C-alpha cells in the first residue's frame, strides 16, 4: 500500500476520531479506562502487595490514615495496595476471557450465517443451548468442580459467554451475505474462505468491536461475582475477592465503609468505562442509531 | 459468427420455502420452476436483451450461465463446449472470459475496500499478476475504459465517496480488467437517474463496438432494450415467448404478451384520450404454472388449443420466433384461403 | 379559488455537514380536480416539497420561508396540533415502497378504519364497512380487508394504499413515486385506477416521479424540478412538445420513444450539485451546453412562454437553434 | 399454519432439553475430580446417603445403563439424597421455589413496566434531558454487579436509615397476630431484594426498548401513520409499541437465565430462603445431588420460559405463518 493509501486511511481515521472526540460518552469511558489501565500496570510495581503477608492485631480494620491510605482489611492487609494489584487481575481476567468468547462467537456466528443449512442449524442449537442455560449457576458448578485457579476462571467465562455474540454476528452475516457484492466475489471466482475473510469479516467487524467492549464489561462483572461468592483464586486477590472478605467479615453492618466501598466503586467505574465506550461505538458505527 | 453462449432446454428450479412439519414428513415439496426449458443462442459481438417482468426468471437465467445457481436440467455451452465446474483450472479460465455487472451500484461494491482493491480483485483472486506496478497499470486502464478519467482520482477512495453512476462504472471496470469476452449485465441502469443512465448505456454499446464484447442485457424496460440491443428475447414465467431483431419485435410483435407489454409501455408523449388496454391480474406464482400455454389465462386471444398444448418457438418470419399457436392458426388460414 | 397554493417555499435540512437547501424558493398551484406531475431526478427536492405541505418532515427538516395555502387555510402558520387535523382529512399520501409503508402487524382493514374513526368520529363497525367500500372502489376483493400486508402482492398493496388514502374523502392526494416499485403491467393498472378515481371523485392529485414518460396520460400539468427549484412548469403539452428549458429537453431525450427514430441520447455531463454549497446563478449552468457568463452570475427568474407555461432560463429554447 | 411454527419450536426445545440432560449427566459424573469419589470421602455424608447414591447411580453397570437409570430417576422425581440436609433433594427444592418465584416475579414485572416506560420516553424525546438521564441511569445500573448494589442498599436503607430489615424473610422469633401481619412483615423483608434485582434489569430493558424503538421510528409505516394525523400517544400506542414489543418478548425470556444468576447473589446477601441461597449453600458444602437438582430445575424452567416466549412471539407477529 503506497503512501497515498496511508493518507486515505488516516483521513478515514481522522473522521472517525472527530466522531469519537465530541461524543461525551466515549471520552468519559476512554478517560476512565486509561486511568485504570495505568494504575493496573504501574500500581503493583510501586506498591507491591503480598496477599499472604498478614498484619498484626493492631493493624486490623484500621480506618484510612497517612500510612494506610485506604485503611486495612480484616486481616490487617493494606487495602490500597490490594486494590492496585486487584485492578491488574480483574482487568486481565476480563480482557482475556472476552478475547476467547469474541473469537469463538465471531467465528461460529460467521460460519453458521455464511454456510447456512445443516451447519447453521447445528451451530445454532449449540448457541441456543448456551443462551438458555442460566449462566451463573453453570459457571458456579464448573468452577466448583474444576477448581478456581485464575486460568480456569478465564477459560470458563470465555467458553460460556460467546453465545450472545454468535447470535448477533450471525444475523449481521446473514444480512451482509445477501448483498450483491458477495455474489460478485463468487462470480469472479473467489472461494469461500476469501469471501469470509475479505468481504464478510470487515463488514461485520465494527459490530463485533462494539460488542467486544460490552462483553468485556460483562466478563469483569462475572469474575467479580464469582470471587464474591468465594470461588475466586485466593492467591490472586481480585476486587471480587476483596468484596468477598468484606462481606464475610460483616464490614457493611459494622460500618467499615473503607473496606467494601473502594473495590466495589472500582469495579463499577471500570465496567462503566467499558459500557460507555461500547455503547458510544455502537452509536457511531450503527447507521440507524447515528444522530444525523 | 460463432456462438458465445448456447442454452439447450435449460431448466433451473428452487425448492419453495415450506413448513417445517411437511419437510419432516418428506412430503413432495413444491418446486419453483424459475427457468423452465429455455433454448437460446448468444452470438459473438451482439447485445441480446432479455426482457421480462419480476418473476419471469430472467435474472435466474443470467446467474445460471455464470454458474451462480445450479442447473436442474439441460446444457450450457460456452464457446461451443460444456464447462466442467468441478475442474479448478477450467472454472478459472471460464471466470476470466465471463463477467457480471449487477443492478444495485450501492450494494455491489464492498463498502470497506478501496476502489483500487475492488477493481484489482479479479486479478488477485485468479492470481494473474506478479508485480504491484502491473496491477496498478491494469487497474488504471480498466478505469479509463469504464470512462472514469483521470483514473488516479478514484484509486484510493471508498465507494461511499462516489455517486451511483461512478460506482456502476467502477463495477464495469472491475468486470473489464480480465478482458472478458462475455458480460451478463443484470438491470445495470434501473437504479440510476435518467441523465446518468444514458452515459452507462452509451459505454456498453461502445465496449461492444470497440472490444467486440458480447452482452446479455437483462431488463424490465422494453424501450431501453429496443434502444441498445441487436436482438430482444421476451421471457414470461421461465420460458422465452418471443425472440428476434429488436426493431421487428417492437414494430411487428407476434406474441400477445409482447403486444400487451408494448401497449402499456410508457411513452414520453401526450396521449390523453387513449385508455390503455391492460392485462388483468399479475404474473402467477411460478410454483403452479398453468397447463398448456402458460400465458393463456391472461391472453385475450386464447382458444382451446392454447389450454391443452404448450406452443413451441416457431418462425413467424426470418429470424423472428414466437411460441404461440396463433402463428399456425394464421398460416393454416392463409393456406385454406388460397 | 385554488385548491393548493405554494408560494416561495424554502425547506432546509440542518445536518452535521451543514445546511442542505433541499427546496429553495418553489412556487406552484393546483386547481380542484386537477393533476400535477412533479418530476425530477433524485435529490431535486420533489419529495421534500410534498412532505412540507403536510409538514411530515424529519426533525432536521425545517420550513424556513414561504407560504402554503390549502384553499383558504394557511398551513405554514398552523401549530403542530392544528395541522394534524388537516392531515389525511384534507391531504393524504400514497407512498412508494408499499412493502414497508403499511404496519406489518396490523390488519389492512384496521389501518384504513382507524383514519376514518379518528377524523370522522364514526363507530368502528361503520369505519370497517367504509374500508370494504374502498376495497371495491380500488378493485380489491372486500373479503380480504382482514389480511396483513405480507399476504398482499406488490400491486395489491399499492391498491390498498390508495384505498387508505381515500378513506376520509381528502381534497388532495399526493402520490410519492406510487408506481416506481411495480412491474410495467401493474404500473399501468395503478395509473389507470388513479386517473379514474381522480375524475369520479373530483379530487386534486400530485404525482411525484423521476420517470417523465409515465405522466403522459395522467397529468394535466407538469413541473420539472432541478436542485431544489422548479426549472419549468406548464401543461403536459407545453412540457412535452413546447418545452424551453435545456434540462427539460435533456431529461425528455433520455426516455427512448419507439415512435421516433432510434438515436442514442447524450448523457448530461457531471453529477447533481451539492445542495449545501449550490452553484452560483443558475444551478444547472455547470452541466448546461448553452451556459454563458450571465448564467453563472445571475439566477434566471421565471419567464412566461404562454398561459400557464413558464421556465427559468436566460436562453430558453437555445437547443432548438 | 400456526401449528407448524408451534411444532418447530417445541421440537427445538425438546432437542435443547435433551442436550441439557446429557450435559447434566456428564457434568456431575465424568468431570475431573469425579464428584462421586468426593461423596465417598466426604466426612459429613452419612453411610445411608453413600449407599443410596451408589445404588442410585448404579456404579457397577456400563455408563449407558447408568444414563438410563439417571433418566428413570429423573422422571420419577427422585434426585437422590442431599447429604447436607439428609432429605430427598426434591423435597428441599420444592420448599424453596415459592420465595424465589415471588421475588423474581415481582422484580421482573417492576423492571418490565419501568424499563419499557423509560425506554419509550427516551426514544421519543431523543437527545433531551430525559433521554440522557435515562440512558445514564441504565448504563450505570447495567454496569453494577448485583451483589454490590445489594450491599449498598443494605448500607443505606437498613444500617443507616433502618427502614428495612437487613436479611431473612420474616423477623425471627416474632409471633404474628394475623396472616395479614405476617404478610406485611414478609413484604418489608421483600422490598430491598426486589429493588436490587429489578434495578439491574431496568437498565437493560430500557436500553433495549430505546434501541428497538429508535429502529421502528425510522420505518416507513411510521411516516404513513404520522401522515394520517394521529397524535403522539396514538402513534406510540397503536403503531410503534406493537412492533417494538416483539423483540422485547424474546429478550425477557432469554434474560431469565441471567436473572437466575442475579437471584443467587441477592438471596445470598439478603439471606432470602430461595433456590439461589440453596444453590450457594450446596455449592459451599459440595453437596452434588442437591446442586444437580437445582441446576436441572432452573435450566428446564428457563427453557420452558423461552418456549412460552417463542409461542407468544408467534401469536403476536402475523408474519410468522410459514
UniProtKB/TrEMBL annotation, chain A:
Its main location: membrane. The chain crosses the membrane at residues 89-110, 122-145, 151-169, 200-221, 257-281. It is found in: Cell membrane. It is a multi-pass membrane protein. GO terms for cellular component: plasma membrane. Keywords: Cell membrane, Membrane, Transmembrane, Transmembrane helix, Transport. Residues 87-278 form the ABC transmembrane type-1 domain. SUPFAM superfamilies: MetI-like (SSF161098). GO terms for biological process: transmembrane transport. The keyword Cell membrane applies. Belongs to the binding-protein-dependent transport system permease family. This is Peptide/nickel transport system permease protein. It comes from Anoxynatronum buryatiense.
Automatic annotation (TrEMBL), chain B:
GO terms for molecular function: ATP binding; ATP hydrolysis activity. Residues 10-262 form the ABC transporter domain. It comes from the Bacteria. One of its GO terms (biological process) is transmembrane transport. Keywords: ATP-binding, Nucleotide-binding, Transport. SMART domains: AAA. PROSITE patterns: ABC_TRANSPORTER_1, ABC_TRANSPORTER_2. Belongs to the ABC transporter superfamily. PANTHER family: ABC TRANSPORTER, ATP-BINDING PROTEIN, TRANSPORT ATP-BINDING PROTEIN. This is Peptide/nickel transport system ATP-binding protein/oligopeptide transport system ATP-binding protein. It comes from Anoxynatronum buryatiense. The lineage of its organism: Bacteria, Bacillati, Bacillota, Clostridia, Eubacteriales.
UniProtKB/TrEMBL annotation, chain C:
It holds the Pfam family oligo_HPY. Residues 4-252 form the ABC transporter domain. This is Peptide/nickel transport system ATP-binding protein. The keyword ATP-binding applies. GO terms for biological process: peptide transport. Its main location: membrane. Belongs to the ABC transporter superfamily. One of its GO terms (cellular component) is plasma membrane. It comes from Anoxynatronum buryatiense. Keywords: ATP-binding, Cell inner membrane, Cell membrane, Membrane, Nucleotide-binding, Translocase, Transport. InterPro entries: AAA+_ATPase, ABC_Ni/Peptide_Import, ABC_transporter-like_ATP-bd, ABC_transporter-like_CS, Oligopep_ABC_C, P-loop_NTPase. It is a peripheral membrane protein. PANTHER family: ATPASE AAA-TYPE CORE DOMAIN-CONTAINING PROTEIN, OLIGOPEPTIDE TRANSPORT ATP-BINDING PROTEIN APPD. It is found in: Cell membrane. The keyword ATP-binding applies. The lineage of its organism: Bacteria, Bacillati, Bacillota, Clostridia, Eubacteriales. One of its GO terms (molecular function) is ATP binding.
TrEMBL record, chain D:
Keywords: Cell membrane, Membrane, Transmembrane, Transmembrane helix, Transport. Residues 97-309 form the ABC transmembrane type-1 domain. One of its GO terms (cellular component) is plasma membrane. InterPro entries: BPD_transp_1_N, MetI-like, MetI-like_sf. It holds the Pfam family BPD_transp_1. This is Peptide/nickel transport system permease protein. It is a multi-pass membrane protein. Its main location: membrane. The chain crosses the membrane at residues 12-31, 97-124, 144-165, 244-270, 290-316. GO terms for biological process: transmembrane transport. Belongs to the binding-protein-dependent transport system permease family. PROSITE patterns: ABC_TM1. It is found in: Cell membrane. It comes from the Bacteria. It comes from Anoxynatronum buryatiense. CDD domains: TM_PBP2.
